[in-house]
Amino acid sequence: MPRFLHTSIFVNDMAESIAFYTEKLGLKLLDGPFHYPGNADMAFVGHDWNAYIELVYDLEAHPPYQLGNRYEHLALEVEGDLPAYISAIKGKGVKILKDAYRSPGGTRAIAFIEDPNGIPVELLEPRTRPTLS
């Protein structure tokens, strides 16, 4: 059976994006950044290689990327208390779009922040109930 590996996003500034995901959100730089002349720079961030984000800086001339009309958001599960995590990253200058609140089903807390490229990132507290099969 196939499994989800990663999502890839275009970034406007590789160093700023790596710093956001590693220093502010606490993910690890898994590999890179790699420079592919005439093509792109790439780096990979995540908790581990089971699911990660591929950051891509396109080296071809183009206007700055804008959030597409079909891209909704990224989602990350945080360890521990979500309100405490939000407070900590707010202190690092992370833009909070929607502070922690209960999910529509009431099963866990969620919040939304924004990455340096304008991409919404959903933060979820750990799941406490088993998922439906």
Separate helix tally: 2
Strands across the major sheet, in which order? 1-4-3-2
Order of H and E elements: EHEEEEHEEE
CATH architecture of the largest domain: Roll
**CATH structural fold name of the largest domain:** 2,3-Dihydroxybiphenyl 1,2-Dioxygenase, domain 1
Q: Helix/strand-derived class?
A: alpha/beta
Under CATH at level 1, the class of the largest domain stands as Alpha Beta
* Helicity range: 10-25%
**Shape annotation:** globular
Q: How many strands in all?
A: 8
Taking the sheet with the most strands, its summary is:
4 strands, mixed
State which percent range the strand residues make up: 35-45%
* Averaged pLDDT: 86
Uncertain parts: none
> Terminal Cα separation, in Å?
16 Å
How many domains make up the 3D coordinates?
2
What integer value in Å does the Rg equal? 16 Å
Give the name of the CATH superfamily of the largest domain: 2,3-Dihydroxybiphenyl 1,2-Dioxygenase, domain 1
Explain what you see.
- This protein has 133 residues and is of the alpha/beta class.
- It folds into 2 domains: 1-59, 2,3-Dihydroxybiphenyl 1,2-Dioxygenase, domain 1 (Roll); 72-133, 2,3-Dihydroxybiphenyl 1,2-Dioxygenase, domain 1.
- Helices cover 15% and strands 41% of the residues.
- It is built from 2 helices and 8 strands.
- It has helices at 14-24, 82-90, and strands spanning 6-10, 28-36, 40-48, 51-58, 74-77, 95-102, 109-114, 120-124.
- It has a 4-stranded mixed sheet with strand order 1-4-3-2, covered by helices on one side. A 4-stranded mixed sheet has the order 5-8-7-6, with helices on one face.
- The model has no long low-confidence stretch (mean pLDDT 86).
